[in-house]
Amino acid sequence: MTPIQTVLANGLRFATLQEGTGPLVLMLHGFPDTAHTWDLARPVIAQAGFRVVAPFLRGYHPTEIPADGAYDADTLGRDAIALAEVLSPEPAILVGHDWGASAALSAATVAPERFSKLVTVAIPHPAGVLPTPRVLWAARHFLALRRAGAEARVRQNDFAEIDALVRRWSPAWDVPANETAAVKRAFAEPGCLNAALGYYRALKLFPPQIPQSQRARVTVPSVVFAGLHDQFPADVYERTRSRHTGPFEIVRVPGGHFLHREHPEVFVRELLRVIRGRS
After folding, report:
1. Strands 12-19 and 51-55, how do they pair?
2. 135-182, pLDDT tens digit by residue?
3. Quick one: which of 182, 179, 180, 41 has its CA closest to 119?
4. What is the CATH number of the domain that holds 160?
5. Global model pTM greater than 0.85
6. Which range marks the domain in which residue 256 is found?
């Protein structure tokens, strides 16, 4: 087991999993997940000559729950910037999945000098997402998870809704029996699930608004991983090219929303190619 190491950044104590030495690769998780989502990738990347740091995002046990209850994308981006500044004097490689991808987009847009490469997984830039019936149906959880009573509902039957979401978002995956055990343990801790749902409550949906930190063009060299079985169609990712003024690549790999867990060998091979700067 990789020991937890604490890092103070942006006024919060972040619990992190760290491994390896070399250029910093900062890996941010999403929902419903924890820093353990990178357990299959972290050691391989570390052995390839990188220092990999995977924090538990704000509010996710054992990271501190913020007193101000701020979970918006702008704040998440500031967290990533602060972590990169504390962990390395040199620009970092930033990798994010789901909410971690949103945080990474915000960070790389606001402070491009802090990052040498941006890698987002299973989430397109929001400016490329049109509200088609298919997209709205796929994103219906954005409404469900911010409603009153969402926390009690998610807790029911040993967090059965967590398992249902994973199966829905990765429909071709034969999900291992203990896949969601780490996040269920985290959500059982006081305040953690409420914090995680706070990310959804912080969204500006009526009317939909792109976070301030994501409105400028992205200048950092960027790569987005798109699952072949994900709910977002391929054209969504293609439309995001206009949001990038620097090099931009779409890597299509097998899997759904949790493609990095479904097909770790393919994902890690491609991620190493990307962070080493190979076409």
Report:
1. antiparallel
2. 777 778 889 999 989 999 999 999 999 999 999 999 999 999 999 999
3. 41
4. 3.40.50.1820
5. yes
6. 4-275
